[in-house]
Structure formats: structure tokens, C-alpha cells
Amino acid sequence: MDFINWYDWIQPTNPFASIFFGIISTLIITLVVWFETKGIKSTGIVFLAGLGVTIIGVILLNLIGYYS
Prior knowledge:
Elements: H1 15-37, H2 40-63
Keywords: Membrane, Transmembrane, Transmembrane helix
């Protein structure tokens, strides 16, 4: 069983790949915010918002049967 395929960065085929690439995207955006603002509060908010959107999105897509 493959957890991540080479094309999962385009359209994730399972929840693990979605969470993995969602977290990577969140970290990249968080780093950009950190370098632009140097503020721990805004960086933390961006990181938590990104994680929240990723996890809630994966849960909703899993509930409607997207990964089946």
C-alpha cells in the first residue's frame, strides 16, 4: 500500500497525503509570514489557522467519501 504517490501534490489520493502536503504548505506560508513580520503572534495565528483548515478539510472530505 502506497501512502504517498508522486502525483499527490497535485490532487491528494488519501487523507495521509492531504495532511502531509497541507502541513508542508502551512509551514512554507508560516515561514514567509515570519520573515515579513518577525512577529510571533501573527506567525502563530497563521500556523494554527493553516493546521485547522487542513485538518477540518481532510475530515470533511473523508466524511463525504472523497478518498474512497
